Amino acid sequence: MEIVAEWFRQFNDTGHVSLLLMVIDIALVAFVIYKLIMLVKGTRAWQIIWGLAVFFIFVLVSDRLHLRALNWLLQVFLPLGPVALVILFFPELRHALEEVGRLKFFRSGFAMLGREDITNLVEQLTRVVDDMSKSKTGALIVIEREVGLDDLIANGRWMDALVSVDLLRTIFHPGSPLHDGAVIIRGNRIVAASCTLPLSDSPRLGTMIHTRHKAALGVSENSDAVVLVVSEETGMVSLSVGGSLLRGLQMDQLRAKLTELLQVRETREGVQSIRRTMSSALSRMRPGGSSDRRPGC
Q1: Which of 105, 123, 164, 230 maximizes the CB count within 10 A of its CB?
Q2: Range(s) for CATH 3.40.1700.10 in the chain?
Q3: Closest residue by Cα to residue 240 from 231, 133, 45, 132
Q4: Considering the entire predicted model, what is its pTM?
Q5: Strand spans (E) along 63-181
Q6: Looking at residue 188, what is its pLDDT?
Q7: Segments of the chain scoring below 50 in pLDDT
């Protein structure tokens, strides 16, 4: 209790400006940690982080249980930790620095786009899916959102081209060397084609679910990506998101669903929320604020 009382005394002695700076400092640290997690989630670095966490848990447990031989063996590797981290995370560190340099670290791919760009992207995708559905051309289109898909991009063919109906139609043409695989879209650009996707192993899937649909579910189960599928047998259009599969979509339904999923919330709403929070905090700090009021005598 004395520690808590001392903390409250220091808290009351802290100036309003210092308190505000402390809140901003904590918010910035939380934001950076969140962006780093989103940056490595869905990549090999995510599994490496979990492996390191298990390693340190073993070190602590072996020390508490006095397993001296095991603890000594584990601690032998600790001095190699910094060098090992640089080697293991070199691709991710380079990618993070590139994202910061392009100012993409602070905003998602779709947050960088304006409303008109997103509308145009949805229109391009709807048109090309409609064309391929009528011609029964198989297609698998993955739209990256917050969770990175760098591992999937790495096993495909790098492109970095603006999304267009003609380009997508050419990629998925049966005679094209890139048609056998998935296209991955980041923002309004095609970043890779002919990508191999992990298949879903969900026991709920029936025997009627084909490979393209299993691949679409596999990606959407492990990320927040939106995946479009066109069946080459029936021409049926499906959309997978969050581990679920919507089949037999009409073009109006597809357009509405894509607009809903890809539309980034207005920045104004976030700014207004921050303003309301800051105004409420400042009002409590003022001499006449609710936090400084005393009960009447």
Answers
A1: 230
A2: 115-262
A3: 231
A4: 0.57
A5: 139-144, 157-162
A6: 87
A7: 102, 105-107, 111, 265-274, 282, 286-297
